[in-house]
Write a structure and sequence with these properties.
Number of helices: 12
Strand order of the largest sheet: 1-2-4-3-11-14-12-13
Number of strands: 26
């Protein structure tokens, strides 16, 4: 894929901003940039609009929304969003398929939502979920908090001997720790925690401290929001984070958004809604569409597409909620996919069973850890370090070692970044082509008298998705009808209105196409095309403008000469 920038490292805020500004300067007819929010630390949350401005305003075209870095540490997502933006701009003049996309559609891309938290993640050894703002407690709580003690730039694991410890050194692999058996009474046992220091230790045992930065932006959206007691990281109330409110305001302010891809890490899986109820509760047509688009993602990315609630949620009683994809689908009726990029386990030779993740035996877990450790040693610089003795000022002799989780498990090592973002872009470009798109397929003028003509037009939807996007949108009663207008000077409409509503137009996803043994079937379905007629009183040679418009399916225009 042709790009302007290199994808061989992770961009911090300054470099990301520079790249966006460079694209805007180099491609002024394609790129518009705005800030949707100023963070607590004064950084801008950039939103980029990509479309060919000469072929029509951005709001007049169906749009795909893409974002990244909802979570501060998931920087692969922001790089994938940046890459899609880069490919669309850089390839516009040389690639006809990209040119058609930007001529006919709009892309809204917010590459980094957690602008403050990501700076901490990229420039310090720390890990955090979303923002470096204390929550829910204003100060560090008692216990062991993560810290890079040996100054290698990575917070790894720390083990120390403890007769009450739950771990022991694996006899088969000295770099691995395995759980202590119920009858283990003799030998050396260990407590294993994050590398770090103890703050205000209470009692005789070392316990992990509660995180200082506990906000989770993907639990702060309005749909399915629960309080902190039920949903950690949710914030004091829905959209209490300015970053979350800015994203919701942006989506609501751009009603042409017809599909959403939100980039996260990790696990190598494509998640589709609903996420707060079983998939069988969704309309069968919505499930079909979500699965078929998900199958495209699997083709391009190699990752399975699964329903969030049925296959991703381990606990379906106390499921995670307040997520962006659920707000999009269950509140706005917009198809939304969460792309969990990068899968370390699969790269190392282990496959995730999404329905039975919590049912691994200890033997299986140790085998996976061995495979991961061996893979990292070969493929990731500083990805794994053996246990090394270190004199802890509070605990005495400890050993520090293990994975660089930030850039082995949570994000791909930089050597694998380019292939990860490329396959994400390939899917997103295909995903955009599934949007609904209005067309004026045929017009006809039939003179009934010297100054009286019948004007008819066939209006169609050439897209996979219907103009209303989902049955969920219909159930929410937020589907907007297709409107068709006819305008001209010195024209009188004898029959028909200047603007007429023709309802919904089905996409070809609703054709009920299926295989049956050796035959192909197309079932009864709602119309994908509709004919509109007017009786017009005007003189021959009069020019009329015919327009079809729907906020999710865009605008089609044509001139008719009587």
């Amino acid at each position: 894929m042709k790009t302007t920038f290199q994808y061989d490292h992770y961009y911090d805020y300054q470099e990301l901003t520079h790249c966006i500004e460079q694209l805007a300067k180099s491609y002024p007819d394609l790129v518009s940039v705005e800030s949707i929010c100023t963070s607590e630390k004064g950084r801008q949350v950039w939103a980029v609009t990509l479309t060919n401005k000469k072929s029509g305003p951005a709001l007049s075209k169906p749009a795909l929304y893409i974002d990244g870095n909802t979570h501060a540490g998931e920087v692969t997502g922001s790089m994938a969003a940046m890459h899609t933006m880069d490919v669309l701009c850089t390839g516009y003049d040389s690639d006809a398929s990209l040119r058609r996309l930007l001529d006919e559609m709009t892309f809204y891309i917010i590459p980094r939502i957690s602008v403050d938290g990501t700076e901490v993640y990229l420039h310090t050894p720390a890990r955090l979920r979303s923002a470096d703002r204390p929550y829910p407690h204003p100060v560090q709580q008692p216990g062991l908090f993560p810290q890079d003690l040996d100054d290698d730039g990575v917070i790894r694991m720390m083990r120390f001997k403890d007769p009450h410890g739950a771990w022991k050194i694996s006899p088969d692999h000295p770099q691995l720790m395995e759980k202590r058996k119920p009858d283990d009474r003799e030998g050396e046992f260990y407590t294993v925690l994050s590398e770090g220091m103890i703050e205000q230790q209470q009692g005789n045992e070392v316990q992990p401290a509660k995180t200082l930065w506990g906000l989770d932006f993907n639990r702060n959206y309005p749909y399915g929001w629960f309080s902190e007691a039920r949903q950690p990281g949710a914030g004091p109330y829905p959209l209490s984070n300015p970053e979350n409110k800015a994203v919701v305001d942006f989506v609501l302010g751009h009603p042409n958004i017809g599909s959403v891809a939100t980039h996260h890490t990790s696990g190598g899986v494509i998640l589709y809604p609903p996420g707060t109820r079983p998939e069988k509760s969704a309309h069968a047509l919505d499930s079909l569409r979500l699965r078929e688009i998900g199958a495209m993602a699997t083709e391009e990315m190699g990752y399975p597409a699964i329903n969030i609630f049925d296959h991703f949620m381990i606990d379906q009683e106390n499921y995670s909620s307040g997520a962006f994809d659920d707000w999009c689908f269950q509140n706005q009726g917009i198809p939304a996919y969460t792309l969990e990029l990068w899968n370390l386990l699969e790269r190392a030779g282990s496959k995730i069973d999404w329905d039975h993740r919590g049912e691994r035996t200890e033997k299986q877990s140790l085998q996976i850890l061995t495979q991961v450790m061996d893979w990292c040693a070969k493929n990731a610089d500083s990805g794994f370090e053996p246990w090394t003795k270190w004199n802890h000022p509070q605990l005495g002799e400890v050993e520090i070692g293990g994975l660089n989780l930030k850039f082995t498990e949570q994000n791909c090592p930089v050597a694998f970044l380019k292939q990860e973002v490329e396959k994400t872009t390939r899917f997103c470009l295909r995903y955009a082509r599934a949007l609904p798109q209005l067309s004026i397929e045929k017009t006809e003028v039939r003179w009934l008298a010297e100054d009286l003509a019948e004007v008819s037009a066939v209006i169609g939807n050439n897209g996979y998705l219907p103009t209303y996007l989902t049955e969920e949108a219909r159930s929410l009663q937020i589907n907007e009808p297709v409107r068709v207008s006819l305008q001209g000077q010195s024209v009188s409409l004898v029959q028909g209105k200047q603007v007429m509503e023709i309802g919904d137009l089905q996409g070809y996803s609703g054709a009920h196409a299926s295989y049956s043994a050796c035959t192909l079937q197309t079932g009864n379905h709602e119309p994908m095309v509709k004919t509109v007629c007017w009786l017009v009183q005007a003189q021959p040679g009069t020019v009329l403008k015919l327009t079809a418009f729907q906020q999710k399916a865009g605008k089609a225009e044509i001139q008719i000469t009587l």
